[in-house]
Amino acid sequence: MVGWPKILGDVLVLAAITWVVVEIREYGARSIKDAIERQNNDADSQSDADRSDYDRCLDGAACGTSAPANVAGLRRVVGTDLIGARGATPADQRKIDRTVVGICAAAV
After folding, report:
1. What is the C-alpha separation between 8 and 30, in angstroms, rounded?
2. Do 77 and 51 sit in the same domain of this protein?
3. How far apart are CA 106 and CA 81, in angstroms?
4. Is the pTM of this model over 0.70?
5. Could you tell me the residue range of the domain that residue 28 belongs to?
6. Do 67 and 56 share a domain, yes or no?
7. Are both 101 and 67 inside the same structural domain?
8. How many domains does the chain have?
9. Same domain for 27 and 71?
10. Tell me: the pLDDT tens digits for 47-99?
11. What angle do CA 50, 55, 60 make, to 5 degrees?
């Protein structure tokens, strides 16, 4: 005689094990998806912040097409360090840095 209650119990245990395995896989996939979305959101936020910094730099530097009122005054602010600098060496980079500092400090 077939033990139907035992077979039914075994089927229920197998269904429960299958359900647990499926839930674990879905949780893993969801956590990976959430991690990727978090990275994308962080990258997007950083991109927005960098873009905003760049825009503020352009606004603060008053970049435009008007000519300086006085070339000698401009030369005192900007300096002549940048002449010949290519950025290939640390000394060149220092020249570039000194020029940028002068421009930013004077809010040119």
Report:
1. 33
2. no
3. 16
4. no
5. 1-60
6. no
7. yes
8. 2
9. no
10. 887 777 776 665 555 555 556 566 676 677 677 777 777 777 888 888 877 77
11. 125
